[in-house]
Amino acid sequence: MKFIYVQGEQDTISAFSVKNLYFKELSRQKDNEISNKKPHHHTQFEIHIITKKSQSYQIEGREYSVKEGHFLLIPPLVRHQQTNCEPGSEKLALSFDAQGFFNETVLLPLTEDMKRALEFSLEEAKRKKYFSSLLIKNRLSELLVCIYRSCSDNEAPAEAEISHTDTRLESAKKFISDNVKQSLSVEDVASYCRMSTKQLTRLFKEHLDVTPAKFILSQKMASVEKELKLGNKSIKAVSEEYGFSGEYYFNAAFKAHSGMSPGKYRKMYGSHLQD
Q1: CB 11, CB 19: distance < 8 Å
Q2: Contact 16, 99 (CB under 8 A)
Q3: For residues 193 and 200, is the Cβ–Cβ distance under 8 A?
Q4: What does pTM read for this prediction?
Q5: CA nearest to 218, candidates 177, 189, 265
Q6: Residue 106, CB half-sphere, CA atoms under 13 Å: how many?
Q7: Distance between alpha carbon 65 and the CA centroid of its chain, in Å?
Q8: pLDDT digit string (tens) for 33-48?
């Protein structure tokens, strides 16, 4: 038996909260030795991947012939026994603890994505370069996700899917938030999101019931209000920091937003500075 990857005791792979993962290559000699072992079970998930020839198993009274290029998933506490090992056969095996993983015995062919993840992991294990273990861990996480998706064969619930529209809207909002101190135009935001200003306006109106220009201004003023409440900068400094061409325009914009001048707002809600 050759261990290719062993997960650290305190480590967790995010997909399915995988812990105690062992990825190993079993020798033909060892397989032959255990082929007649009595039925047994484990507290972990097991995945047997046949890379050459075939092997046979009996799981809860049912026979499974696992051919080259196929994998067999055995859930925890399921009694099983390897009954035959074709001469020259080879396999890889994973054992691990997990939450929410597919909990039925499954025999399926490897997909191309699974094969690539396995090939990469095996090759990286041979290289033994810096961060090889991290790269193998990431590919094994990808492998487990692919296996889960192949076993479940179900689409994710519609509400869990993120639509293209939601993605573009959130991207626009994040760009505005990150650059709230800049003199952002609607064209700037539309260009960043790879959209026309017309498309961007339609997106904001449909989902937020506001134009992009008003949304930009509202975000800028919300940030300005926080600055004024802190009171550690002059009103002139705040005006310049947030890209206004002068205090007059800043005062007019803030009064239109809040109903009062910046100075009055600071006196009512924040600390005091002499401007």
Answers
A1: yes
A2: yes
A3: yes
A4: 0.59
A5: 177
A6: 19
A7: 35
A8: 555 567 888 999 999 9
Report the b/e string of 223-246 with b at 16+ CB within 10 A: bbbebbeeeeeebeebbbebebee
Q: Which residues contact 174 (CB under 8 A, 6 or more apart)?
A: none
3-state secondary structure of 254: helix
d(CA 29, CA 199): 65
C-alpha to C-alpha distance for 107 and 49, rounded to whole angstroms:
10
Amino acid at 62: R
Structure-token pair, residue 218: 């509202």
Tens of pLDDT, residues 205-259: 999 999 999 999 999 999 999 888 887 788 889 888 888 888 888 889 899 988 9
**Lookup: tokens for 56:** 């046979």
Strand segments, DSSP code E, in 151-214 are: none
Distance CA 194, CA 241 (A): 27
Three-state SS for 55? Answer: strand
